[in-house]
Design a protein that fits this description.
121 residues, 4 helices, 4 strands, 36% helix, 15% strand
Length: 121
Amino acid sequence: MPPKRIPDAIGQAAVRGALAGTTADLPTAVRYLLQVLATTAEGNTVEVRVPPYGAVQAIEGPRHTRGTPPNVIELGGEAWLALATGSLGWADAVASGAVSASGQRADLTAFLPLRWGTMGE
């Protein structure tokens, strides 16, 4: 059974709340932004992991089917929120160690920041 989709209104409210510092909104905000990434960068080449909140496969290319994917990005919830909303750049996140990225295609530069809000946020 596929994971339940977070409705846009709920996800966008959670992102706004998390950006305002409401820690209770962080889990939903992270999951929603992962959902947006999976929709806008559809594919199965890169696995983006944000433990303990969730993981998605994204970006077009060779499909991964078993074992550890060849392209993995792993980061914390606050770092994902900052990257996805544009307050942290990809290169800075990698350089600071906030992001662990392995594999030739493990780079989200072309997809960030995400357009997650109804007003183009």
